Amino acid sequence: MLAISQSGATYNYLNWIPSESGPLVTHHGSIQKELENPDRIDEHYYEILDKIFSQVQNGDPICTFSLDSSSVLFSTCNAKDKNQEMINWHLNQTHDDELNKVIDYYHFAMSSESGKMLNIGFPKAIRQSFQTNMSLLKSKLNGLSVGIFSAEVGARQWMHADKNGSYLIWKIGKKKNDELLYIQNGELVSYFSIHRSGKKGKVNWQFGDSVAAESICKDIINVQNNTSKKFSSAEQVYLYTTDGNMKDVKFFHALELENLTLLNPLSVLETTEDEKVHEYNTLPLAETGNSFGGIDV
Fold first, then answer.
1. What is the CA 202 to chain-centroid distance, rounded?
2. Would 42 be classed as within a structural domain?
3. Is residue 228 within a helix (H) or strand (E), and if so which, with residue range?
């Protein structure tokens, strides 16, 4: 199985095969490629896939792909029990017909108490491009995901995050703008972004429970300012980054908080080569998690 995740112009990949002791990593790495012409997106993704396939060399791979969150659209709607009529009504009210022609929507239930759905809009052009390129490369696309949501799958599969009553996926971002997912009792409670600045912090945007987002923001600022030695808003916190903000990652990791863990699959998975894993440089592989859905690790 080949997992690829996009972060801006960087494409991280991790290839694994099944073994008696669980998934065995055979290759991992990254390539850089800017999208020079949006009208030639098929060619863009073909070149990326072809280059990664040539480096992995595992025949006709089955792939998963995780998009950068900036490539998709997010919204929420009230839709208790996943009522499709209410979801369709929401989409008709909030998006015009032209947008609906170019976007495919997927819906994820949030906490049962909220009765809300998180709607994620994938560009049809990207999905169709992958279908075309997979056929040309004699491969198969096994699933599409998005950044931190793929990392959350990884946290469950690699580190059994779902054994906790609550947990937080924390993606350190540029200029102290971070992205977070808060899960409680197996349900998505809030997806949000915060800005960490000095002795204060603020929520940039959020979907779901705003009270939980504000509480977590304050919790992180307290930890950052050394007024707390443990996260109180979640039983376990999984930390990673994809765009090189290692200074902040190292700062929080060096605090040695009892309920903070680096979300790095190579700290758990076995590899075919006896390599010394760099715990920070390989953190972007966190977003390859959707490749491991339903796999025992």
1. 22
2. no
3. none
Q: Is residue 11 part of a domain?
A: no
CB-facing half-sphere around the CA of 124: CA atoms within 13 A: 7
Note whether residue 55 is domain-resident. no
Q: Which of 155, 150, 172, 170 is nearest to 265 (CA)?
A: 155
Q: Are the C-beta atoms of 219 and 232 separated by less than 8 Å? A: yes
Q: Which residue has the tokens 């994809």?
A: 242
Which residues constitute the domain of residue 87? 73-121
The C-alpha atoms of residue 77 and residue 60 are separated, in whole angstroms, by 40
Cα–Cα distances (Å) from 140 to 15, 64, 219, in that order, read 14, 9, 43
**Nearest Cα to 181, choosing from 190, 172, 194?**
190
DSSP string, 139-208: -EEEEEEEHHHHHHHHHHHHH-GGGSSEEEEEEE-GGGEEEEEEEETTEEEEEEEEEEETTEEEEEEEEE
For 77-93, how does the pLDDT look when each residue is reduced to its tens digit (9 = 90+)?
777 666 677 777 766 76
Contact assessment for residue 231 and residue 246, using Cβ atoms and an 8 Å cutoff: no
Residues 176 and 256 in one domain: yes
Residues 184 and 257 in one domain: yes
- Phi/psi for 296 (5° steps) reads -80, 130
Instruction: Flag whether 154 is in a domain.
Output: no
> Is there a single domain that holds both residue 106 and residue 180?
no
Measured CA distances, 243 to 45, 60, 73, 115, 219 (Å): 20, 30, 21, 34, 24
Question: Structure tokens of 37?
Answer: 């012409």
Distance CA(138)–CA(119), nearest Å, equals 31
- pLDDT, average across residues 183-202: 92
What pLDDT digit, counting tens, does each position of 120-151 carry? 988 898 888 988 998 898 888 888 899 999 99
